[in-house]
Design goal:
The protein is α+β, with helices and mostly antiparallel strands and about 210 residues long. The protein folds into 3 domains: about 90 residues, no CATH class; about 45 residues, no CATH class; about 45 residues. The chain contains 6 helices and 9 strands, in the order E-E-H-E-E-E-E-E-H-E-E-H-H-H-H. A 3-stranded antiparallel β-sheet has the order 1-7-3. It has a 3-stranded antiparallel β-sheet with strand order 2-6-5, with no helix packed on it. The two termini are about 45 Å apart.
């Protein structure tokens, strides 16, 4: 594949392989002859590892931690995206951490305006008809549309949007537990983590109706 691509390219996946012995902590030490084929493949393809921010281990079980998931890019991609970084986020419905690739040199958050999207579940709220009636009262169609958009967004943030706030709070708690587990394992933390994931799944199911 590397021989036929003449532009920028990147590859990321669970390679289930180590590049160096320190890519595993605990258990039997990786043998060098098992790492050579992976190293040779990366070198032959002319790939460069994308730098990692934070915990670099992507899989763990009991006292063993391993880095099995990798992100590589060719030289052209590195030149065009020099600030690119990799973050390994929390595990979600899988025993591997989620790979997140970001370009720290490009911030588009401020340039993206918030768009309006009507949600069918709003009709399930008893006070929603009041929002609609008040928006078009003594207004023409265009004025009513603009008023409804602003009122609905504000109402959604205060009433319906609480689900998103709860999910963010759960994520912060999970990140705190994850950091604590990196220092030392605890059965209590594992039980709490499982309980929080169950609550997150419940909120996700509720969010689908919004």
């Amino acid at each position: 594949m590397a021989g036929i691509i003449d532009s920028t390219w990147m590859v990321l996946s669970d390679f289930n392989a180590f590049l160096n012995p320190d890519d595993k902590v605990g258990g039997a030490r990786p043998e060098n002859n098992m790492m050579v084929p992976f190293r040779s493949c990366i070198d032959d393809c002319g790939l460069l590892e994308v730098p990692v921010v934070g915990d670099r281990f992507t899989w763990e079980r009991n006292e063993i931690k391993e880095r099995l998931d990798w992100v590589f890019r060719n030289f052209d991609w590195e030149v065009s995206h020099p600030h690119m970084k990799v973050h390994y986020n929390l595990c979600f419905k899988c025993d591997h951490r989620v790979i997140v690739v970001s370009d720290c040199g490009e911030s588009r958050r401020n340039s993206i305006s918030r768009f309006f999207k009507y949600q069918a579940a709003w009709c399930l709220k008893q006070d929603f008809p009041d929002i609609v009636n008040a928006s078009w009262e003594n207004k023409n169609w265009l004025q009513g549309c603009e008023s409804f958009k602003n009122s609905a967004i504000e109402w959604n943030d205060k009433v319906v949007g609480s689900v998103a706030v709860k999910k963010k709070e759960l994520l912060r708690r999970l990140e705190g537990i994850d950091k604590a587990r990196q220092i030392g394992r605890s059965n209590g933390l594992q039980r709490l983590e499982k309980k929080i994931w169950m609550e997150d799944n419940r909120l996700a199911a509720q969010e689908e109706l919004i």
